[in-house]
Amino acid sequence: MCGICGSTGVGARDRVRRMNAAMVLRGPDDEGVYIDEASRTALGARRLSIIDVEGGHQPVSNEDRTVWAALNGEIYNHPALRATLLENGHRLASGVDTEDLVHLYEDYGEALVHALEGMYAFALWDVRRRTLLVVRDRFGEKPLFFAERHGELVFASELDALLAGLDGGADLDPAAVDAYFVFGYVPGPGSIVRDIAQLPPGHMLRWRRGAPVVVEPYWTPEALPAPEREDVGELVAETRRLLESSVRSRLVADVPVGVFLSGGTDSTLIAALAAKASGRPIKTFTVGYDVGAVSEAAEARRTAHELGADHHELLLTQSELAARAPGVLASMDQPLADQALVSLHAIAEHARREVTVAVGGEGADELFGGYPRYRWLRRAEEAGARIPRVPAASVASLVRRAPLRRAGRVADVIEPRALQLRHLDWVTAGRRAHRARLYGPALRGSVPGEHVVRGLEERLDRADGASTVRRLMLLDQVHWLPDDVLVKADRAGMRVSLEIRTPYLHRELAEFAAGVSDRLHVKGGGKALLRTLLDEVAPSPGPARPRRKTAFRVPAADWLRGPLAPVLDRQLAAGSAFAEGWFDRGQTARLVREHAAGEDRSSVLWPVLAFGLWLDRLRGDEVR
Amino acid sequence: MATRSADLRILLISPDFPPARGGIQVVAHQLAAHLDGEVRVVTLGPRGPQDGVLDVRRARSITASGPPAVAALNARAFREGLAFRPDAIVSAHLFAAPAAAALGAALRRPWVQYVYAMEMGQKPRLAAAALRSADAIVAISRYSRALAIDAGAPTARVRIIPPGVERPAERAPEPAAGRPTILTVARMAERYKGHDVLLRALPLVTARVPDAQWVVIGDGPLRPALELAARRAGAPARFLGSVTDEERDAWLGRSHVFAMPSRDPGGRYAGEGFGIVYLEAGVRGLPVLAGDAAGARDAVVDRVTGRLVDPTDHVAVASALIDLLLEPESSRAMGRAGAERAREFGWERIAARVGELLRELSR
Predict the structure, then answer these.
(1) Span A507-530, pLDDT tens digits
(2) Cβ contact (<8 Å) for A237 and B208?
(3) Would you say the C-alpha torsion B277, B278, B280, B286 has a positive or negative sign?
(4) Residues 6 or more apart in contact with residue B87 via CB below 8 angstroms
(5) Phi and psi (nearest 5°) for B40?
């Protein structure tokens, strides 16, 4: 786990100390700083002890102290790497994975990235070559922000920490705020703050004094051509082999490990495999609510019982959840409007009393075709190819006004539009249409037109020629997954010093899934391979087996009318989001009134609220 | 003894036989060619040049494979058997077991079932029935034997006789000069062959051996994905598809390491039954890299004829490949040992062991 940071140039040591201090929650157990005085380069690390609790001080070096490394996260193939390194004659001083990095670097140089399986962001300083290498894992599980100032580099695991290391205030980037409002998260490789970037997933950064910073990919998710016909049983066996291996590797820790169990396919499968792999009863954690999807918790409880798990259920009332929401939203280093963040934070906090590591189901939907929109949007594309555009547009507009349940969804499908727009409006509930009225002067006019859509087009271009479903899966893997799902998991965990591990985000599993026919992936309600595998390993098969992922959901619309209404009012009265002109106070107030009157405006109000709370904290923290 | 063996009449039933290509085709063909005695082959498929040299009878079927072909093969084999009245019957594949068992019972003659690997998991009921009633079972490796016992074979009736190699050389050829080359020869139909792991290992290999290349011979439905993944990664890989035997041999002569890290696929799916291709590489004096799994453990002697490594660990695979490419002395020694070992697997010797088993049973 942990947090890392680093700096080159004058004042590097001081900057690193400040950045370390800003990451105490990421790493409460230990702190370390390395400084190369001659080269004015410093690395810092805060540590949450998980493996080799006593001996894992960071940064670490090789035998002759010519290579130094600081690591945030876990290298899951550490035991195998260690065995190979020992066989190749290396002397290892500790049992920690960070040490693998320096020795692998000795053997393979920058190609060491190809040896690693895990969730990580790390920095490596080569004393002799005076080169700094900063690397982020393949899926973007661990964050890494950086800034280049006058040829010097400063980086940190979180934006707040980086800001603590930089001189001067946080100047928000209007284009990023615009993208945040549309998506509900800040898409990389930029950040919400001007001139601060995120290292994209699967990329490495190379810095040498006097040379431009180089950022280049070492791994990218692919859409691969799948064999026409394959034995499904064989594919399920391969899925099982890989997932079992992944689960085993993610259970390795010198501290207690638990499993987040939501009652859906993804987490049930992980829990079942973890129970098989673990010598003792596993600890499972689930959240239940006093309204809504109560059966979910019941399903989780039943599964846990059948697995012989030590089950922990957190029952949250609406008022409790709503009470914690403002603090959680404000505590993000970049604004995040994902409503599930609040409940994930709650369950993480609950689990932290028992365990230091929890395993979750993140990534299964993106890699194995779980989202219903993949099937819907494929139908839309297929229909679009057959129906002439003009009548389709008229029909869509009629359907949209019809008093039908899901009228909007059906209209979205019928209306002739480019795939990226269809997808965007599907996942964001058409938020982009509200921008013209809702944006304040700081955003109006200063945002390049439709850069958000162009960004999506660029990402989709990489999968040119692939099927609709495959292109959407790939888009989710490089956009929604790293910038929303994994930010949520990392920050919700880190705010309570809990490490969340994700067995589905396993390189080989992802590469395997990328070469399986997408028709098969989305068959019968999605995630066909995982569901078939679950039937094989589930404790008791039957009709009660979960079919759909339900995740940890929250009734945000109700909160905004109830317990969060006063928070919204306070925002309207004195929030920085309005004072600084990011959003229009009058228009937002109108939406709040409409929402209170019964219209559902939560898809617009929630991002505004999350942004406002985040910005207030940022401004309050800032010393000007 | 010699006169007795010369008199032995053997019926060999196999769904696979040249001119079709594949492992079982080779086993059936080489047994027919080298078994001491009068051998009649009943098989499927179009006639080939072998038909003029050996006694080959081909069942006619409306389909090339599948249930109608299997039924036709068994019907023809049963008729041929009644007419030929063999001393012993060899079923070269589980699909030929019904006729072999029926003839065994009808003629009161012993019959032998050959087993490899994946077919036992694919046809568990047929396997159980055949393996319980056969007088002896020839498993091609310890792994194959374990699978047979799992499938229902009585332990005492299982013999391990590996497949053989053709044309084992008297002396290992000189090692190749030129660009460091890793060669893989395998069908690209099953994922367990480990092409994916080699592709992951390649950037680590080239970090240490910058001009190394990977030459891939073989074709199949997995090829487009592998080829695209290799191209996107900028890997120094050449996919040659299916090639002639001469071309394959030329590449064996030009390469420095033969690599095929086959793994155990798990579930009811089996891995490498033996991996004759490892011995064939040995014939050419090549050190081999194989997965420490399934039948390859019998085909390769670790650190003698090559390296057996964890086939799911691409870093271990890369590390072994680097050793094999960068340590020419020990690689050459492994190549020599491989060539020497291959001579023990000449088809004459292997067929003699099968002949011995048949004589023993028919006494």
Answers:
(1) 999 999 999 999 999 998 899 999
(2) no
(3) positive
(4) B7, B8, B9, B10, B37, B109, B358, B362
(5) -115, 135
Classify A386 as helix, strand or coil: helix
Q: Is A520 on the interface with B (CB under 8 A)?
A: no
Contact B204 A114 (CB under 8 A): yes
With beta carbons less than 8 A apart as the criterion, state whether A284 and A350 touch.
no
Return the number of other C-beta atoms located less than 10 Å from residue A533's C-beta: 23
Cβ of A467 under 8 Å from any chain B Cβ?
no
For residue A279, what pLDDT is reported?
79
The answer to whether A115 contacts B318, with C-beta atoms less than 8 Å apart, is: yes
Longest CA–CA span in chain A (Å) reads: 74
The whole-chain average pLDDT of chain A stands at: 89
DSSP string, B201-227: HHHHHHHHSTT-EEEEE---TTHHHHH
Any idea which of A41-55, A236-250, B210-224 has the lowest mean pLDDT? A41-55
Percent of chain A at pLDDT above 70?
Answer: 93
Beta bridge partners, B88, equal: B10
Weakly modelled stretches of chain B, pLDDT under 70: 1-6, 168-175
| Residue A610 reports pLDDT greater than 80 | yes
Cα–Cα distance measured from residue B29 to residue A460, given in angstroms and rounded to the nearest whole number: 53
ipTM, 2 decimals? 0.92
pLDDT of residue B4: 44
Cα angle A380, A385, A386 (rounded to 5 degrees) comes to 100
Query: Are residues B363 and B355 in contact, defined by beta-carbon separation less than 8 angstroms?
Result: no
Q: What is the mean pLDDT of residues A62-70?
A: 94
Within the 50-89 window of chain A, which residues sit less than 8 Å (CB to CB) from chain B? 77, 80-81, 83-84, 87-88
- Facing residue for B225 by CB, picked from A111, A224, A245: A224
Higher-confidence residue of A2 and A42: namely: A42
- What does the pLDDT look like over A455-500, one tens digit per residue? 888 887 777 788 889 999 999 999 999 999 999 999 999 999 999 9
Residue A337 amino acid letter? A
- What does the pLDDT read at residue A525? 87
Q: What are phi and psi of A193, to 5 degrees?
A: -100, 135
CA separation for the pair A161, B144 (Å, rounded) = 58
| β-strands B257-260, B288-291 pairing | parallel
Residue-wise pLDDT tens digits, A277-298: 987 889 999 988 776 654 578 8
Q: Give the residues across from B41 on adjacent strands.
A: B12, B56
* Burial (0-12, 13-18, 19+ Cβ within 10 Å), A252: middle
Number of residues in chain A: 624
Q: Longest Cα pair distance anywhere in chain B, in angstroms?
A: 65
Residue B196: C-alpha distances to residues A257, A391, B101, B168, B345 (Å): 31, 48, 41, 30, 30
CB contact under 8 A, A222 and B232: yes
Angle at A218 between CA A216 and CA A222, to 5 degrees: 115
Which band of pLDDT confidence, cut at 50, 70 and 90, is reported for residue A541?
low
Sign, CA torsion A388/A390/A395/A396:
positive
pTM above the 0.90 mark? yes
Interface test with B, best of A75, A76, A77, A84 (most B CBs within 10 A): A84
CB proximity A317 to B under 8 Å: no
Q: Three-state SS for A585? A: helix
Distance from CA of A66 to the nearest CA of B (A): 19
